[in-house]
Specification:
single chain; OB fold (Dihydrolipoamide Acetyltransferase, E2P); 8-stranded mixed sheet; 5-stranded mixed beta barrel; 18 strands; elongated; binds 4-amino-1,4-dioxobutan-2-aminium adenosine-5'-monophosphate; binds magnesium ion
Amino acid sequence: MIATVKDIAAFEGQTVTLSGWIYNVAGKGKLLFLQLRDGTGIIQCVLNKGTLGDEAFDAVKALGQESSLSVDGVVVRDSRSKVGFELQVSAARVIGPAEGYPITPKEHGDAFLFDHRHLWFRSKGPHAILHVRHLIIQAIRNYFDSRGFLLLDSPIFTPNACEGTSTLFETEYFGRTAYLSQSGQLYQEAGATAFGKTYCFGPTFRAEKHDTRRHLNEFWMVEPEIAFIDLDGIMDMCEDFIVEVVAHVLTHGRHHLEELGRDLSVLERVQKPFVRMSYDEACVIIARLAAENPGQDPPINPVDPEDDFGATHETWLTKQYDRPIMVHRFPTVVKAFYMKADPENPARALGVDLLASEGYGEVIGGGQREDSYDELVRKIHHHQLPMDAFEWYLDLRRYGTVPHGGMGAGVERLVTWICGIHNVREAIPFPRTVSRLTP
Ligand code: 4AD
Ligand code: MG
């Protein structure tokens, strides 16, 4: 019977066939203890020279790490094993021998590991992270699918900027210039007016030159958009969404988080309500923190009231709270052209950033969109964007405009925070950064 490590409990006492790769091997006289990795888990296989015969035993003994093989054996309960069982092997067949596998149990540098990313994610840490990523994506889809959102895929080739012209990847498109999408939002705004609630979920491209622990040049983002909603409604959704995503991972991926040494109590505290504060309120708090904590490296400079936060500000601010926070009403001047100005203070935009706890910072950006035709035209001019590329977008204000809004949640930022790891690069199978295009 063909079995997998994950389902091994169902085969107790039976003889099964397992196929996989050698994670580790240790020998003791006529016994060989093989850690077999089959992609679903790792199980100890005990090989006995007497049972297998000299030739088969020696053939397995000579195999290097990550050689592939098939073994037949009896599934026996073993309380010391992580999976609760071990396999007492009666036959083994070598499939693909490996010699000199580059990733060994010793420590390797980051650059070396990322150069070997195609092999590295066979290891336990990356394996756990990518499982958590899978669960997060599953939770994201469940969240929107179960609430009546229509999946409406946005295009990747676009004729215009969405999030500022400085981070566009340009490409030649049959004699014209096209850009790789920075955000599918504008198309979702069309979707919301047609279907009420839509979302897109896909890769997003930003030609950001900074190689930081938070930035990728290709990342995945989910972007829901809703008609007839205001900023408060959007904040309610962001909060509810985060609580549900974290709960899903805690329910279905606890063992992966434990493998990563994640402090689960931090995630268990991710419950409603999250603190909401305006940007101006946040500036006051940051100024106080700067005064109370002199001599920090990097220093906590007070925020310029007409500028965006820096990473240090976000880090300090979020460390004051035991769960994510939402900062709203940022200076209009630092925000994208499509954001609606606060009618009570036009210097502030009706946008929100959701900042994860423990200094992880922004994981969601969203807000209410400019729904006035005249205001939007003014903003497109003001941002020096090409009006003709936005004619279709202006149609959404010409024909039955409504208050609407949405958000974008970055998958890798969520994975990084939920796993409690250091760098977004580890949160995606094959990272694309300024310095990395391979593998
Ligand atoms: O704040 P951003 O730029 O917002 C938008 O793109 C809006 N159009 C979204 C919307 O309202 N539909 O990006 C949204 C999120 C960020 O909060 C962050 O999680 C992620 O996308 N993100 C990045 N993740 C990794 N690397 C980068 N360079 C990222 N830039 C943004
Ligand atoms: Mg943002």
